[in-house]
């Protein structure tokens, strides 16, 4: 009997909480720039030379890696970007055999995807992360308080924390070479790629190019442009000749990550009375639960 009464009170509390959500709370609007810059990586053209890693290291003045860029043995380690390396290349063997019966490798460059509506920027409580008109998800270290909410929010697990600097630690990730784009230059990785596996340009132009390549050579490519819709769309796009799930790509929903979280925040805090009424309702619910528990013990 006491359990039924408790369930009734909890249900009443949840119903009261749900009543706090004002009508139209789901009217979320995207903050994505209309046609930002971005990069298209054609996995079928990448040869795993790691020149993009070297260029990224030099442009961003990052520390020298423990393993030299000429050492290709690291390609099979399935690395992720770190505070000291904004981009890495991994090697996979998902596909067909060559003439000698050996598996043909595929090389995948990994870096920040620069989402159109980035979850990291939505989670940042100080505005240290923001989506810029040129396509970059920009980081302002002067605003960062080190909460690391961005690391939790990112669906691609990209932001890394610089734990080695106890005085002024930073969140580190690919910048899309923000300063170079502002100067009219392409990102360092795109400028140095010897096989032109990385194409820099306007996102709309890159999408047209990607779909044109698929249409012109359907046997070469999977009929999917990764990043066109994932997480609401990203400024970094991919073409591949094998299913993306075999190449280490994350399976993420098409809806922008901030859409649900920002709608909930707006619903609860758009009016000053919402937090007070919410916590008041929860307090009354907990008090009634506690009283019923005491009555049951007395019995």
UniProtKB/TrEMBL annotation:
Subcellular location: Cell envelope
SUPFAM superfamilies recorded: 4Fe-4S ferredoxins
Location (main, coarse): other
InterPro entries: 4Fe4S_Fe-S-bd, 4Fe4S_Fe_S_CS, FDH_Electron_Transfer_Unit, TAT_signal
Signal peptide feature range: 1-27
Keywords, alphabetical: 4Fe-4S, Iron, Iron-sulfur, Metal-binding, Repeat, Signal
Domain 4Fe-4S ferredoxin-type: 37-67, 135-164
Keyword match Signal: yes
Gene3D superfamilies tied to this protein: 3.30.70.20
GO molecular function: 4 iron, 4 sulfur cluster binding; metal ion binding
Name this polypeptide is given: Fe-S-cluster-containing dehydrogenase component
